[in-house]
Amino acid sequence: MHANTDRLWDLVDTHAPAAAALADAVWAVPELNFAETRSCALHARALHAAGFRVTPGIAGLPTALLGEAGNDGPVIAFLGEYDALPGLSQQADATTHRPLPGDGNGHGCGHNLLGAASLLAATALKDWLAETGLPGQVRYYGCPAEEGGAGKGIMVRAGSFAGVDAAITWHPGSFAMVFPPASLASQRVDFTFTGRSAHAAAAPHLGRSALDAAELMNIGVNYLREHMPPTARVHYAYLDTGGNAPNVVPARAVVAYSIRAADLPEMLALAARVRTIAEGAAMMTDTTVTCTVVSGMANLLGNQPLEEAMQIQFERLGPPPFTTADRAYAEAMRATLDAQQIATVFRALNLPVKPDMALCDTVIPYVPDRGRSMMGSTDVGDVSWVVPTVQALGATSAVGTPLHSWQMTAQGCSTLAHTGMVHVAKAMAATGAELIRNMALLDRVRAAHAGQVAQQPYISPMPSPAA
Question: How confident is the model over 222-256, as pLDDT tens digits?
Fold first, then answer.
């Protein structure tokens, strides 16, 4: 068994230079939600070169794509991403903040690596199946707009993952480990208040201030915070404050809310309470309010048999083979971080703080239901409700590097990042291979997933386009 898997790792190494080149090419053209035109094209080109059948524009999303190989057997999907973030432009490898000229976008969450490593794992598994003659199918999903756009949620709603037996993905970070299946369900809702403009001095009684309504809504939500579950989060930002003329009563105001909670039912209930507050604010100001759900993400469902299978592959691999030069670079990058930033990365995963660890030098042990003290949201959660799903963390940055930071962008095409990317691709590919040749494992994975969704069926946090 191990000999076959080791051959699979050899195939990963064979394709690693092309994957590193893809990651660097995507890093050089950072594009935001649903606008990843060049990044998607780079992935399509790589899939064609690797011999996949490519379908562009799946789920009606121009920057989503599907690569397929094989015709029979279990279907293993690898999920890739390639969207960037605004305001995180940064010179590669620099250990000081040096934004590049241009639009200001940057890969401060490592999605240039994420897509490349998932495609690398898919390619190696495809070639391994061809060599061994085992029945199995491989899919690579290029998924746009993870950063708040919920691209995978749209793909789930469109049925894009039908027929998949298991989905495998990962995220760049500080450690090599199975990703704890914990995230917050979320919904982004825009509230538009409409009032009536008037001369603020000569006829203020004729005005109905939409801005007053938005401010009253914010006050009401602030009072709600005392009565939310402790893991819930509510954030807001003004999109339109009604103009900049104080002598005109503003007739329109728009405020965006991000509502998060531990699971889908809790989040949807909290979102309903926020809507009630908005309606109350409109009543108090004699204005009207409409709400538009912009995006939504389900919480992650774990799958213990699948997580245990991935942990076995990580332990067989051992830690990433970083070089002395990688470690020196990591030390230089860590000098740009403070002790709190470094400690937060450990505590977020309930790990003991090791302030002297510059690079991940071990595989983190698997702990079922390892909780996280601080959680974000991911549209991988929606996939996990319809397909058994497992995520890895890959060690692609100096320990303590925060996500969504210029430091993460700077490390995105370093040899350190490439080493961690190839390492996690081996763990993912080997997990896929084990699912294909071990039907008893795949049956346990399916049964665990079926038991979970039987208790709580999936509810899309995004209404259908016709709703």
Answer: 999 999 999 899 999 999 999 999 999 999 999 99
The secondary structure of 169-198 as a DSSP string is EEEEES-BEEPP----EEEEEEEEEE-B--
Give me the phi and psi of 125, to 5 degrees please. -65, -40
d(CA 181, CA 73): 27
What pLDDT sits at residue 1? 43
**CA 38 to chain CA centroid, nearest Å:** 20
- Contacts of residue 99, Cβ cutoff 8 Å, sequence gap at least 6: 89, 90, 91, 106, 406
- How far are the Cα atoms of 20, 81, 388, 412, 437 from residue 406, in angstroms, in the given order? 20, 19, 34, 10, 42
What's the count of helices (H) and strands (E) in the chain, helices before strands? 13, 11
Distances in Å between the alpha carbon of 55 and those of 25, 142, 348? 21, 10, 38
Specify the DSSP class assigned to residue 249.
Answer: -
In which band, very low, low, confident or very high, does the pLDDT at 3 lie, cut at 50, 70 and 90? Answer: low
100-138 pLDDT tens trace: 999 999 999 999 999 999 999 999 999 999 999 999 999
Partners of 261 in the β-ladder: 185
Alpha carbon separation from 34 to 143, 153, 171 (Å, rounded)? 9, 13, 19
* Residue 397: count of CB within 10 angstroms of its CB: 31
β-strand partners of 253: 193
Burial class (CB within 10 angstroms; exposed 0-12, middle 13-18, buried 19+) of 2: exposed
Say if pTM beats, i.e. exceeds, 0.90: yes
Q: Rounded to whole angstroms, what are the CA distances from 415 to 43, 49, 396?
A: 21, 24, 9
